[in-house]
Design goal:
The protein is an alpha+beta fold and 177 residues long. Helix content is 27%, strand content 33%. It is elongated and about 80 Å long.
């Protein structure tokens, strides 16, 4: 996309430079430049709109609308995670959960994520260190994240929102079997 935009800009600059070589009165030249600028503006506007509609379909974290196979509640706190199966409506400070869970591969998991204290970031990485999905964990708000673990393995939940001194140790494990 960037290459196409660069080529388009280069062509417009070359057209403008070639048009400016001839000698003509200022008023005529001004009208030509304004007409070219208007065409350039509308061309770029159409290109951006088409590009947006084309690429919006490939945004990450698509959700097929499929019903979740399992639901887990996740509560972040300085400097750890509490995760438990099911939906919890109790206060985050009173929530009981484990810092490591086991789930099955190829199941759509619905994570309901909140925080007990400050903003955190619920990010899931595979064993190769690749970020697979993420959402914010915020006090007083529940974010919902759907994810299907494609294969068995060890996945790590890491906080990507700096949350204090022991932030680097805010890691937990999801074992996918």
């Amino acid at each position: 996309m960037s290459l196409a935009a660069t080529i388009l800009i280069a062509i417009v600059v070359m057209v403008i430079l070639s048009a400016s070589r001839g000698s003509e009165d200022k008023t005529t030249a001004k009208k030509k430049v304004y007409a070219l600028r208007n065409k350039y503006f509308w061309g770029l506007t159409i290109l951006v709109i088409v590009g947006l509609f084309t690429t919006l379909q490939s945004l990450p974290y698509s959700f097929s609308g499929k019903q979740a196979d399992e639901t887990y509640t996740v509560v972040a706190l300085q400097w750890g995670w509490k995760i438990a199966p099911g939906v919890s409506n109790i206060a985050p400070a009173d929530f009981e959960g484990a810092d490591e869970i086991n789930i099955k591969a190829n199941k759509t998991i619905k994570f309901i994520v909140t925080s007990q204290d400050v903003n955190h970031d619920f990010s899931i990485y595979n064993d190769e260190g690749v970020l697979l999905t993420q959402t914010q964990a915020m006090p007083g708000y529940k974010n919902v994240l759907h994810y299907t673990f494609p294969k068995p393995g060890t996945y790590h939940v890491v906080c990507l929102e700096y949350c204090g001194g022991a932030h680097d140790y805010m890691v937990t494990t999801i074992n996918v079997i």
